[in-house]
C-alpha cells in the first residue's frame, strides 16, 4: 500500500482521526562524536582535506579551518572575519612555542593533552593566546598542585602575567601561610621591591612574630645591598615595628648600621619607640603599622584519631580547639583503627589503613569537619597496611611503608583526590613499619621505623620530580613508632621504642647541614606518640610509656629547650 494516501494537508505530523500513530524511536549515538573525531584526526594525520597550514617557527602544522574554529575563538575570528589570514592557505603564527602549538592542535582533534613540568610554562601562554579556556584551567590546576615554598613566588608571578586570577589568589594565600619557609627561598631574595611590599603588607601573613618580617626584609636588602639600600625606607614602612618587643627594637633594629644611617628609617624606629613607651597615647597612634596580623591559619585544630586503648583498637576521634583550650568528641570512624595513618588534604582529614583488632585494613575514610561526618567512598590502598606513615606533598596523599600481616613493606603509593585513585611510586630502599613521615622543602622524608626485625635509625627522602628515594643522615637513636613533625624548618623526631624500651629522647634534623642534633628529652617515655604543630607550638600527644597508655600532652619550648605538660587531656588513653 502507498503510505502517502494517508497524508492530509495541514500539520504534516498529524494523521486523521482513527488512524494509528506510527511507532517512533528517537536515537542518539554515544559513539558518533568520538568516532567522528577519530576519523577527522586520521584525515589530518594523512593530510587529507586539510585547508590550512599553520607555520610556527620552523614547524608546519596541517589542519582544517572548521575544526580550529570550533575549538578556538582566536581561530574563529581569524578565519571568519575580514583578516588576510582568512584567505591564506599558509598562516604564520608568531609568539608561540612550536611544541606547545602542536599539543594544542592535537587537543583540538583528540580532546587530550598532558600537562607536565616540562611544558606548562609554554603551554599556558599558548592556550591564553588561542583562548582555550579549558587548557588554561588545566595548566592552572597543575600549577596549584606544584605549589611549594620554594616556587610559589614564581608561580604567583607567572599567574599574574597570564591573568590567571584563581591561581594568583591561591598562590598569594599559599605564600602568606608558608611565609616562614618562603622567606628562606631564592625566589624571595630575587623579588622586586613592589612585590615584597605586597607580601609583607598583608594582615594574613603567617608569622610567629614581627621579628621574622624584619629579619626577612633585612636579608632581602643585604642580598643586593648596593641596589636595594635606597629602597629600605620604602620597604621598612610596611614592617610593623610597633609590634616588636622593646628589646628587639632597641637592641637589633635600632642598632643596625643600615637603619642608623638613614633618616627615614630612624624616624620609623622612633615612632615605634613612642608607641611602646607611651601606652596612653596609643589610641591616637593607630594605623597600618600598629594593626596586629591575623593570619588565616590552616590545620590549627588538632585531631586524635583511633589508636589502641585498654587492649583493643578504637574508632573514636577527638578534637582539640586552641581557641577554647578544650577537647571534644566528634563523629567516630566506621571502623576501629590502630596503627592508622592520618593527614589533611584540602581541609579534609584522611584515615588510612590500620588494624581493627582482628584484620589488617586497606580501607580509607575521610572526615569533613564542616559536617562532622566520615565518608567511606575513598578508594582503598593497593595493599593492607598498619603502622603506616601518611603525609601530603604536592596535592597528593602518600602512604609509606607499614606491614600487611605477612611482611614489612617498602611500598609507597599516592592518592589523587580528583581521580579517587591510588598509584604506586618508587619504593623505599628499606622496608619500614612504624615509620614516621614528614614533608620539608618539597621532599617526603621517611624516618626510622622497623625493618620487621630491628628498629632503624636510617632516614631516606623521596624526590617527586625524580621519583627516587635518597638516603640522608641517620638519627642518633634507633626508633620505631616515633613521632615526627616539621617545626621551625627542621624535622623533629621524638619518643618511639628501641630494642629494649620506650623512649623519651628527642632529636632534630637540619636539611641545610644534613645533620641530626639532640633535643632535650620529653618528661614521659612515649611510644606510638603523635607529634604535631598547633598555633606555632610543638605538641607530643599520648603514647605508651611501657606500663600505661597516656592521655597527657607535652609542649616543647624552643627558647628554653624544655618540655612542659599542658593543662588539658583527652578522654581516651591512646597509643
From TrEMBL:
Query: What are the GO MF terms of this UniProt record?
Result: type II interferon binding
| Start and end residues of each BTB domain | 50-117
Source organism superkingdom = Eukaryota
Note the InterPro entries from the entry.
BACK, BTB-kelch_protein, BTB/POZ_dom, Kelch-typ_b-propeller, Kelch_1, SKP1/BTB/POZ_sf
Signal peptide range in chain numbering: none
What keyword terms does UniProt attach to this protein?
A: Kelch repeat, Repeat, Ubl conjugation pathway
Pfam families per record: BACK, BTB, Kelch_1, Kelch_KLHDC2_KLHL20_DRC7
Q: Where is this region: Disordered?
A: 1-27
Sorted alphabetically, which Gene3D superfamilies does this protein's record hold?
1.25.40.420, Kelch-type beta propeller, Potassium Channel Kv1.1, Chain A
Which GO biological process annotations does it have? Golgi to endosome transport; proteasome-mediated ubiquitin-dependent protein catabolic process; protein K33-linked ubiquitination
Claim: ATP-binding is one of the keywords in the record: no
Gene Ontology cellular component annotations, sorted alphabetically: Cul3-RING ubiquitin ligase complex; cytosol; PML body; trans-Golgi network
Pathway assigned in UniProt: Protein modification; protein ubiquitination
Name-wise, this protein is Kelch-like protein 20
Amino acid at each position: 500500500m502507498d503510505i502517502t494516501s494517508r497524508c492530509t494537508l495541514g500539520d504534516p505530523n498529524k494523521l486523521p482521526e482513527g488512524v494509528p500513530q506510527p511507532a517512533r524511536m528517537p536515537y542518539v549515538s554515544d559513539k558518533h562524536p568520538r568516532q567522528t573525531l577519530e576519523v577527522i584526526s586520521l584525515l589530518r594525520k594523512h593530510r587529507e582535506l586539510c585547508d590550512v597550514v599553520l607555520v610556527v617557527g620552523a614547524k608546519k602544522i596541517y589542519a582544517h579551518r572548521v575544526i580550529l574554529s570550533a575549538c578556538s575563538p582566536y581561530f574563529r575570528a581569524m578565519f571568519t572575519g575580514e583578516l588576510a589570514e582568512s584567505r591564506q592557505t599558509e598562516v604564520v603564527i608568531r609568539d608561540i612555542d612550536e611544541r606547545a602549538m602542536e599539543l594544542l592542535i592535537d587537543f583540538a582533534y583528540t580532546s587530550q593533552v598532558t600537562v607536565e613540568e616540562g611544558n606548562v610554562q609554554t603551554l599556558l601562554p599558548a592556550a591564553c593566546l588561542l583562548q582555550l579556556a579549558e587548557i588554561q584551567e588545566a595548566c592552572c590546576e597543575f600549577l596549584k598542585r606544584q605549589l611549594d615554598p620554594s616556587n610559589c613566588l614564581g608561580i604567583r608571578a607567572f599567574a599574574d602575567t597570564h591573568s590567571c586570577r584563581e591561581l594568583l589568589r591561591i598562590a598569594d594565600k599559599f605564600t602568606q601561610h608558608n611565609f616562614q619557609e618562603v622567606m628562606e627561598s631564592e625566589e624571595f631574595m630575587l623579588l622586586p621591591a613592589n612585590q615584597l611590599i605586597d607580601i609583607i603588607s598583608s594582615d594574613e601573613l603567617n608569622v610567629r612574630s614581627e621579628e621574622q618580617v624584619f629579619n626577612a626584609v633585612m636579608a632581602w636588602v643585604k642580598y643586593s645591598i648596593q641596589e636595594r639600600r635606597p629602597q629600605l625606607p620604602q620597604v621598612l614602612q610596611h614592617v610593623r615595628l610597633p609590634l616588636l618587643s622593646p628589646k628587639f627594637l632597641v637592641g637589633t633594629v635600632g642598632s643596625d648600621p643600615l637603619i642608623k644611617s638613614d633618616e627615614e628609617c630612624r624616624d620609623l624606629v622612633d615612632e615605634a619607640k613612642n608607641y611602646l613607651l607611651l601606652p596612653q597615647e596609643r589610641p591616637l597612634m593607630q594605623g597600618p603599622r600598629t594593626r596586629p596580623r591575623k593570619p588565616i591559619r590552616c590545620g590549627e585544630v588538632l585531631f586524635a584519631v583511633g589508636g589502641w586503648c585498654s587492649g583493643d583498637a578504637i574508632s573514636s576521634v577527638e578534637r582539640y580547639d586552641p581557641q577554647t583550650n578544650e577537647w571534644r568528641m566528634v563523629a567516630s570512624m566506621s571502623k576501629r583503627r590502630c596503627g592508622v595513618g592520618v593527614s589533611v588534604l584540602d581541609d579534609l582529614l584522611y584515615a588510612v589503613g590500620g588494624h581493627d583488632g582482628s584484620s589488617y585494613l586497606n580501607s580509607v575514610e575521610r572526615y569533613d569537619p564542616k559536617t562532622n561526618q566520615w565518608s567511606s567512598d575513598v578508594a582503598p590502598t593497593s595493599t593492607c597496611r598498619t603502622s603506616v606513615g601518611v603525609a601530603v606533598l604536592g596535592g597528593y596523599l602518600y602512604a609509606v611503608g607499614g606491614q600487611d600481616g605477612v611482611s614489612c613493606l617498602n611500598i609507597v603509593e599516592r592518592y589523587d583526590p580528583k581521580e579517587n585513585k591510588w598509584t604506586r611510586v618508587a619504593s623505599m630502599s628499606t622496608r619500614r613499619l612504624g615509620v614516621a613521615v614528614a614533608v620539608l622543602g618539597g621532599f617526603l622524608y621517611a624516618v626510622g621505623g622497623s625493618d620487621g626485625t630491628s628498629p632503624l635509625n636510617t632516614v631516606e627522602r623521596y624526590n617527586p620530580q625524580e621519583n627516587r628515594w635518597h638516603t640522608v643522615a641517620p638519627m642518633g637513636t634507633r626508633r620505631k613508632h616515633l613521632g615526627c613533625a616539621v617545626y621551625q624548618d627542621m624535622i623533629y623526631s621524638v619518643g618511639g621504642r628501641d630494642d629494649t624500651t620506650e623512649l623519651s629522647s628527642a632529636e632534630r634534623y637540619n636539611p641545610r647541614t644534613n645533620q641530626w642534633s639532640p633535643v632535650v628529652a620529653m618528661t614521659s617515655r612515649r611510644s606510638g606518640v603523635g607529634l604535631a604543630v598547633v598555633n606555632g607550638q610543638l605538641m607530643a600527644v599520648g603514647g605508651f610509656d611501657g606500663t600505661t597508655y597516656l592521655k597527657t600532652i607535652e609542649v616543647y619550648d624552643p627558647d628554653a629547650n624544655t618540655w612542659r605538660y599542658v593543662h588539658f587531656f583527652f578522654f581516651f588513653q591512646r597509643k
